[in-house]
Amino acid sequence: MTTYLIRRLLQTLVILLFVTVIVFMIMHLLPGDPVRIMLGDEATPEQIELMRKELGLDKPLPVQYLSWLGDVLQGDLGRSIAYKQDVNELVAKRIPITFHLGFSAFILAVIIGIPAGVIAAVKRGSWIDSLITVSANIGMAVPTFWLGILGVYLFALKLGWLPVQGYTSPFEDPWQSFRQSVMPIILMSLTALASLTRQTRSAMLEVIRQDYIRTARSKGLSERRVILGHALRNALIPVVTLLGMQLGFLVGGSVFIEQVFNIPGMGRLMVQSIFGQDYVVVQSVVLIVAATVALANLLVDIAYGYIDPRIRYR
pTM for this one? Predict the structure, then answer.
């Protein structure tokens, strides 16, 4: 197990390195100059050149990348070009917001999606199965940003039940935080919830046809024990795989929701930084998202051994 973890951690570090290189190159291939965006069209060539030297943008690209990577390894994400702040401070303010919304949406998707998939599989062919399946298909097909705009129009502008935009920490005002977060969290969880429902139903349908399930029933075990103790556990491998993918997506894929609801999270920060060609911020945000996805995948791999004792790590 220890050898496996070390190998996976090394693989994760290599993947993160490749991600940073790709993002660095893409950002520098984009047209435009961040210094000109900062100073405006009336800036003189001397002012532009001086600012480029101050920001280190006059150095060759490999030198810029290695300099940034060296600072990251020391825990320094650099200084934002557009915000003129340390990226550590920017991230420290915004990452709790994105993680709060992302993990809340993830938990909501799990506690509804998996039971819904189990019920649909057990009640296969019934109206309950049809209702759950159709709802899951709709949840996967409808764009979340479009639903977000409809939600703002209906629940905020027409009915006045919820705020139009913004974010409040649950530690400051729990009730206001709930009112501002409930719609973004529900919308963020929809795609993951629908995917989990479909995957759980599919995996359960395959498992409940197996001989050992018929044997368990023939022994007189209750249906609840057969489903939860035997069928569900053996159906969890593909579901857990999907959980790891969805966890990374919910944390890193909150861009549209944060834009629609004007939430000052990591996704909104990255969009603003891309338009402002703030290389340092974009690289740092992508690195954090990539690290979150890699960690989620590592936890999924470890969970396989606990779910299925037949799996051994070498």
Answer: 0.78
